[in-house]
Amino acid sequence: MVVNKFLIKAMNIETGGILIALLTESDAQKLDLNIGDRVLIKKGRKEITAILDIAKSSRTLAKGKVGLFQEALKHLNAKSTDQVSIHFAGKPKSLQYIKEKLHGKQLSGKELHQIIDDITNDRLTDIEKTAFVMGGYMNGFSVKETVAMTKAMVETGEQLKFNGIVLDKHCIGGVPNNRTTMIVGPIIAAAGLIMPKTSSRAITSPAGTADTMECLARVELPKNKIEKVIKKCGVALVHGGSVNLAPADDKIIEIERPLAIDAEGQLLASVMAKKHSVGAKIVLIDIPMGPSTKAKNRSDANKLKKKFVMLGKALGIKVKVIVTDGSQPIGNGVGPLLEAKDVITILKNEDHAPTDLKEKSLKMAGILLELSKKVKKGKGYHRAKYLLESGLAWQKMQEIIKMQGPQKMPSLGKYSFNVKAHRKGKVKAIDNLTIAKLARTCGAPFDKGTGLFIYKKKKDKVEEGEILFTLYAESKDKLNLAKKILIDQEAYLIK
Amino acid sequence: MVVNKFLIKAMNIETGGILIALLTESDAQKLDLNIGDRVLIKKGRKEITAILDIAKSSRTLAKGKVGLFQEALKHLNAKSTDQVSIHFAGKPKSLQYIKEKLHGKQLSGKELHQIIDDITNDRLTDIEKTAFVMGGYMNGFSVKETVAMTKAMVETGEQLKFNGIVLDKHCIGGVPNNRTTMIVGPIIAAAGLIMPKTSSRAITSPAGTADTMECLARVELPKNKIEKVIKKCGVALVHGGSVNLAPADDKIIEIERPLAIDAEGQLLASVMAKKHSVGAKIVLIDIPMGPSTKAKNRSDANKLKKKFVMLGKALGIKVKVIVTDGSQPIGNGVGPLLEAKDVITILKNEDHAPTDLKEKSLKMAGILLELSKKVKKGKGYHRAKYLLESGLAWQKMQEIIKMQGPQKMPSLGKYSFNVKAHRKGKVKAIDNLTIAKLARTCGAPFDKGTGLFIYKKKKDKVEEGEILFTLYAESKDKLNLAKKILIDQEAYLIK
Q: Which fold has domain A415-494?
């Protein structure tokens, strides 16, 4: 009988996700474990599944010890002196279901729950998670599967509950900036309504609401703190991932991010799971339509709209969908800090505030006010405009920032480059994808102060040599990589 | 200007594949690098791309040092005192092509070459490689794409060259045991022909030829040693991965293995790349047909046959395809050691040698002898039988083992369990998938002595309580996991 007791050694190495455990070769052999095996590590009643790496020197790890990387240590809630036992973990059940999805099978609620549960508890490797995401991306999910996946995401996470009518909003993305949440939220709050908005970080874009808000305030708050902010202010502007609202969603996003893909069924489940987790009963969905967005045309947009409404119905949520112009960036900044600055100029009613972002936000806030029945039909926009221009929304925003914990604004990228018009003419089109790619290559969303600032929009007249936009980066390498993109790709069409 | 000089610290940690580099938080910040970033590490003119983990304590890593995990150190051909520079590496070009493949685009030869080159040089993460494998698995590869991928695999690896007519064979798998190569090879060698067979390790099966041969001799040989063995013996029985023949193939298999999938285009390219790399001009392909194999029926088999012949033509290789019975295991053992034992009993002409495996091998060797024109049409089988039963093939095998480097035979799994017939009757069917799953759960192919031994085949009469097969494992845990499978799944149909 092999004695199965190991002392933990904290390896002090962060992987950014995957849970890694380390054994010496001889200990692994004794336990009949191989490199790359999935192992179950038990500390009392707590357990995690980790991937096994092998220590090749006793200086790295002594016999009788198990090295845990940072994430594994954290998930096990353990410290260096703790004792654990280690076991071979068979392949997780969900692997079979993932394979069936790859083969085009429609998965049952139970099967999807198992997959989502295994993702939530880090029982799947990157390869296996990617296979699931690809199965969904390429074979699609039915409405029934999407409902099941949404429920599973909600059930495997924490949930928030509020009294009264709970509103929420969401944009499916594809348009740089378009930071409406940070304007609509304060307006709704100023109207005395509840909108427990939780946001994701960027997937394919240069910034998500969470990344942007993080330039102004902390967005990774514990559950009880978020509840406090919402109860006090009506609105919180936080990252959903940090409070375990539908945590599987964020783990799936980690897979999608490096591939810069967004699977439709996954998208629907992702959006609605967050809304369901916070108890929203009225949800406004913004579907921007344009050549670079998920909805290329009216027919795409309507199909997606229908699915959102159906999914809402299945979950007991009233969903209103608007299809908006997604043919160019909305706002001027692209990148967390630059977008945060746009938001502030609007909330503070400054002269140079971008009008497109302001008008869109007012329209959306108006719809929500009407849906809540707080304002009469047809009067929403005007009420929203009053709440913004009176300064009440800005006051709310300051209150929210104060409660979430103000952050020192990051500084703008040290290195910049002006991109100029090659010819005189009129801006006919702006390529959102190139704009996003440029901003991401500059370092967004990770380097907060990077991205670009847009001076010219569609229909604007330009002279030859006039600045169209300015790139900002934190390193010369990244700025140069962005400049290289401009050799092959045109961000602007001028005619 | 940031000084970019780092001393290597060997972390002595093996991951089993992925290249990991470690920096302190402050050094990463100075270089403007984030956790999970792809970094270029340069030592003189040598460079690798690695994934960045972060050290959270100075005991783990001091400032000014870069920690390299075992595989990164090996690829960079570096040691602890070496100095390197570290740079942000943009996303590899092939990522864009992978995304296009996901969207169903047919990739050009140049694009596939880029992907295969990035895979060969470890520039892609598990997530990205999985996305590529999934794109091919779900959207398929055209013949043109497969030809390009095959060529790219050959070009990004080493190649072997021999004088004279070079033969080769391959079975596309799906049938437990079926270890014909280790019998056909020695027969062909005894006939004085050249068959520079290189084999893969198991993907979805409990053992590959490389895993099995490794019970008898070393299979990881350097290129010059393999050439020596072939020049001396006519045949080598080695693992292709160790000599960099089409190394991308093995890296793709590492992705397929945990998912237990085999993509068709990938399969075709994988097989033909190995053959092309060793300069084979005549290749015999065995397509087993059965409910659990890739060819479920005659039409599947013929489609695949046609593709192999077309791909052969494009590569200048004469391809002969046979469709064989794949409805049950061929041979008695399942698992590396147990299969190696079957092979030896046949080569030594022992009484209890499995006749199905022997006959199939003779038939295949006969075809190859005829294709080589060494033996007249219609006389191949008889010549092969003579070479086997005279002991000449066994003599060749001993010669090959001696040159490759004999290995001490592993011992049989310590723990065993007899699976008995529930009722009297006749064996109507054996489920290959359940047999393979049982053997893999017992520990095959990693624990060499594990798997199962089959006593009863299709059409055999059995009494109630008679032993059908015996499971062998190295740990009680794994044996118990295998026994659990038997509760839900029937390996035998007895009527």
A: Aldehyde Oxidoreductase; domain 3 (3.90.1170)
